[in-house]
Amino acid sequence: MAGRAEREALRRVQTPQAFRFAEILAAHRVWTGEPSAGDDAQVSMNCWVLPPEILDVTVPGRPAVGRRGEARIAYRAPRANVVAVVQVVEDLDGVSRASRQVEIGVVAAAFGREAGQLTVPLAFETPGRKRVVLTLVTDEREESEPASIEIEVAR
Predict the structure, then answer these.
(1) 140 shares its domain with 65
(2) pLDDT tens, residue order, the chain (155 aa)
(3) pTM exceeds cut of 0.90
């Protein structure tokens, strides 16, 4: 700026903000910059909320028809609250290749944790090869990339 601005010609304007409240509140809570951040955009640019990530999936033992099993999911969810796991089971044997999908709530086990391990139940009605696809879901309905594992279900 070269010189002094004529105050009579200046106007105060507020620009509209386009942030989801929960996301910008989370960004302000983890903000480590100057206490008087310029605006929400500055805070947001430095505090992106990352989607959750599945690091590893294991199914201990050998699942069998009529016997409850489990999948163990190691995950990371920086600045996100995981609330559910979407589980899709695909039957890889047979002509129809049937699949089913269910959303499993995990709020008590994962909410507020940036990393950890989740255990979700597995149950099978038929033997054979299956693909289990798991996706983490946050309270903002952000999803992780799906992770899959193929298993053999015994009779």
Answers:
(1) yes
(2) 567 777 787 777 666 666 777 777 877 887 777 777 667 777 776 666 578 999 999 999 999 999 999 999 999 998 788 999 999 999 998 776 778 899 999 988 998 898 999 999 999 999 999 999 999 999 888 899 999 999 999 99
(3) no
- Host domain of residue 34: 16-46
Question: Domain count of the chain?
Answer: 2
User: How would you write the chain as a 3-class SS string?
Assistant: CCCCCCHHHCCCCCCCCCCCHHHHHHHHHHCCCCCCCCCHHHHHHHCCCCCCEEEEEECCCCCECCECEEEEEEEECCCCCEEEEEEEEEECCCCCCCEEEEEEECHHHHCCCCEEEEEEEECCCCCEEEEEEEEEEECCCCECCCEEEEEEEEC
